[in-house]
Amino acid sequence: MIIVDGHLDLALNALQGNRDLTVSAYETRIAEFGRVGKGMAQGTVALPEMRQGRVALSFAVLTARSTGCVAPHMDFASAVQADASAHGHLAYYRALEAEGHARLITDRQQLDHHIFAWHQWEQLADGVPAHADMPPLGFVVLMESADPVLAPDRLEVWWDEGLRIIGPAHFGSGRYAGGTGSEQGLTPMGRELLAEMDRLGFILDLTHLSDASFWEALERFEGPVLASHSNCRTLVPNQRQFGDSQIAAVVERGGVVGVLLGCSDLVADWVVGARHNGAVTMRAVVDHIEHACSVAGDALHVAIGTDLDGGVGRDEFPRDLDTIADLQSLPRLLQERGFSAGDVDNVMHGNWLRCLRGAWSSPAAARQVDG
After folding, report:
1. What is the percentage of the chain residues whose pLDDT exceeds 70?
2. pLDDT value for 371
3. Checking DSSP bridges between strand 102-104 and strand 137-144, what pairing results, if any?
């Protein structure tokens, strides 16, 4: 089954983690064996495993912050440094495209062509995993934290370079909005950013916004919204997850919520770094999908946004997921939980595709394509 993944930190792992994603995740684990560092020898994502797992399309992430809480390789001392780092991430995706590994998707026509090519390949491949004519992987570029945007009036440059989705904040208090662990709302510059995003046709990613920023952003932003990787606060009661009213608000706007796979986001008592955490399996992912669907009232607004290898490794993901290829276990688990075949298709790819097609049929997006 074709999969669309709403959140993959590919460039972060390739550049800050110095991983060659064109080779198997298993090769990288061997190369990293014995190295000290978070996630070392524990990677789950590489392009060969994405192909094996039929991850035909993903939201490929640019991540850089400038919050004043400098962290190695991610949170920089200035916006200029964050801008340079994020542009490096984008350059990495362009380099993969130039080498034939990937295809950057920026409009509905490209999206439809890409998905048609994958469906056609699946029919021809007849289940052979390494069929020679497999299409390139598709990337829709998403910025996680708008800190790299030097000013709202510079946003059009990012649009022209291929960026299509923006989450204004990540962790902490950002230049544009409060993020996870913060009570800050939108900054004055953040309000300007949303207006410019509206004008240009960007999609707003509500993931990681503080509660105050979330509600103000929804009130101010008129364009398409989604949550690339957010779980259910009812099941894991912390601010990183969405409450039922937030899920309902995304659904009311026609958006989609992508469920992520980090163990600390899946079960309430899992603590990062603790030695005695309980076993977590992919069934916990289905718990969040099922709850979000119950809030939505259907299976048309929930999808997958794995956040795999977002600076961590398989020790912080469900124990029955060795690599991203194991996402193919989800259809069976969903069916066991009572999801119909059509609902499974929607969760695994259909909902994200409909979300993108709807966003790229909007008047603002159409103006940008025509222009």
Report:
1. 95
2. 47
3. parallel
Radius of gyration, CA atoms only, the chain? 19
Question: Residue 118: CA atoms inside 13 Å, Cβ hemisphere, count?
Answer: 22
CB atoms near residue 91 (< 10 Å): 13
Of 18, 23, 36, 49, nearest to 308 (Cα)?
A: 49
Q: Using the Cα atoms of residue 27, residue 228, residue 331 and residue 359 in order, give the sign of their dihedral.
A: negative
What lies within 8 Å, CB to CB, of 310 at 6+ separation is 7, 9, 12, 262
Check: CB of residue 360 under 8 Å from CB of residue 309. Answer: no
Nearest-5° Cα angle at 153, 196 to 79:
110
SS (H, E, C) the chain: CCEEEEEECHHHHHHHCCCCCCCCHHHHHHHHCCCCCCCCCCCCCCHHHHHHCCEEEEEEEEECECCCCCECCCECCCHHHHHHHHHHHHHHHHHHHHCCCEEECCCHHHHHHHHHHHHHHHHHHCCCCCCCCCCCEEEEEEEECCCCCCCHHHHHHHHHHCEEEEECCCECECCCCEEECCCCCCCHHHHHHHHHHHHHCCEEECCCECHHHHHHHHHHCCCCEEECCCCECCCCCCCCCECHHHHHHHHHCCCCEEECCCHHHHCCCCCCCCCCCCCCCCHHHHHHHHHHHHHHCCCCCEEECCCECCCCCHHHCCCCCCCHHHHHHHHHHHHHCCCCHHHHHHHHHHHHHHHHHHHCCCHHHHHHHHC
pLDDT (tens digit, 9 = 90+) per residue, 87-121?
999 999 999 999 999 999 999 999 999 999 999 99
Q: Are 64 and 147 in contact (CB under 8 A)?
A: yes
Residue 270 to residue 252: CA distance in whole angstroms: 31
Query: What pTM value is reported for the model?
Result: 0.96
Mean of the per-residue pLDDT values of the chain? 94
Which residue type does 314 have? R
